[in-house]
Prior knowledge:
Alpha-Beta Plaits; 8-stranded mixed beta sheet; globular
Amino acid sequence: MPNIRQLISLKEKYASLNRSDGKVKDFLNKGLMENVAIQKSFSFKERQILEHFDVSNATPTLIEYFESKPKEDVVLLFIDIANFSSLTEARTNTFITSYLDNYYNAAFPIIYQFGGQIEKLMGDGIICVFGKPFIDVAWPIEFNKAELCAKELIQKFKGTNKEVKVALHSGEITYYKTPGTDYEEYTMIGKPITELFRLESISKSNAINFYVESTYDAIKPTTDLGLSKIKATEVKSFSFEVALQGVEYSKVRYLKFI
């Protein structure tokens, strides 16, 4: 989760940049893309990427929002590279860092384009959230944005040495800030986070994976017909070989696309 104090600092830095410095590519290279304001000089595509998060919202009010530890219903994605350990175990540090740089530089713009906010990076794993306060849309459009994002990521990396698997889950989380000043972090806690981690561990590659009888499973026909118009070329389900600790679901469904 972004550190709100950093956002305010970055907003001040942004105000001092000239127009040419404000292009999306430059901000991507600096790792600041989610923290910049939209400029009329940006192209339509650049505005699409940036419009989900305006740092003009990075005010004390937003800080107070996170400090109050609110509960929100959100949609979560856990994206990671299939077989990452085996792909990199015999590689040099130089190769691995370049490999991850290329992966992140390709993945981050897609996540931001659809309104996602990165919650945490874990090696090759990216956990991102779709929901308040980063996007405020009518239910269930956050599912639509998340699944479109997932499909785009899958298609982006399919056939490369960075093929991904995507776990999609939702539920009520609590935004949480660690106490004190020794290690300040904004993050999320709640059962959906545990269930997301378990789902990722058994997910199939090149597919959106989700629990049978989850909210997304229940509304999938609606999203197919009305919102995203995503059509799966393959829909399969499987039961766990071993029960997943802390998870009440017993079966996973996954979607693959052309």
